[in-house]
Amino acid sequence: MGLSYDQCVLDELALAMDKIDEGSLEAAKEMILQTEADGGRVHVTGIGKPSYVAGYIASLLSSTGTPSYFLDGTEAVHGSSGQVKAGDVVIAISNSGETKELLYTIETLKNNGAKIIGVSKRSDSTLSHLSDVSLCAAVHKEGDLLNKPPRLSVLVQIIVLQKLSLLLQEARKLTPEMYVQWHPGGAIGESLIQQENC
With contact defined as beta carbons under 8 Å apart, do 137 and 157 qualify? Predict the structure, then answer.
């Protein structure tokens, strides 16, 4: 079982990396930079397992120079969408791109003037059609016989959005001195402070 899972990971990652569209990532980067220049903000949302990806990506972006806010995908239509202003960017994550609760949230946010960066495995998904920029996080197999519990889909969503975070980080010319301002704690912060004092 372990060996077949390992091979599945390697195969699916190779396929997924091949389907990542660098042009779409560049468009997402430019949308975020322009939104910030106009005074807007970035929010990240998802339902189920993608909500955990959303929390991580919001934290990663914030720590590398792009202040970002987690938006609860179900609470958004019960008042929490008030955190999103017209002109803000919302990164929405869904493996299928058809999760009804998330689509309802995205339709609400679009009606309120938000711009959407959608992340799903299909370019023809409803989420992709609702998005201003669509990012492909394609997986065919999750790594087990059921092929239902999210495993590899979560991994690929993270990789796609990590690539976006790198583009933004490079655009901001992030330095260790800048990074330690936002991450002074833990082993990472300690190593950066020691590096500064050398």
Answer: yes
Phi and psi (nearest 5°) for 15?
-65, -45
- List the CATH number of the domain containing 192: 3.40.50.10490
Q: Which domain range does residue 165 map to?
A: 2-197
How many structural domains compose the chain?
A: 1
- Count of other CB atoms within 10 angstroms of residue 160: 25
Q: Which residue has tokens 């390697």?
A: 10
Choose among 126, 81, 123, 76: nearest CA to 99: 126
Angle at which helix 152-171 crosses helix 22-37, to 10 degrees, equals 50
Q: Are 112 and 81 in contact (CB under 8 A)?
A: yes
- Residues 6+ away with beta carbon under 8 Å from 145: none
Q: Please report, in tens digits, the pLDDT of each residue of the chain (198 residues total).
A: 556 999 999 999 999 999 999 999 999 999 999 999 999 999 999 999 999 999 999 999 999 999 999 999 999 999 999 999 999 999 999 999 999 999 999 999 999 999 999 999 999 999 999 999 999 999 999 999 999 999 999 999 999 999 999 999 999 987 777 777 766 777 666 665 666 665
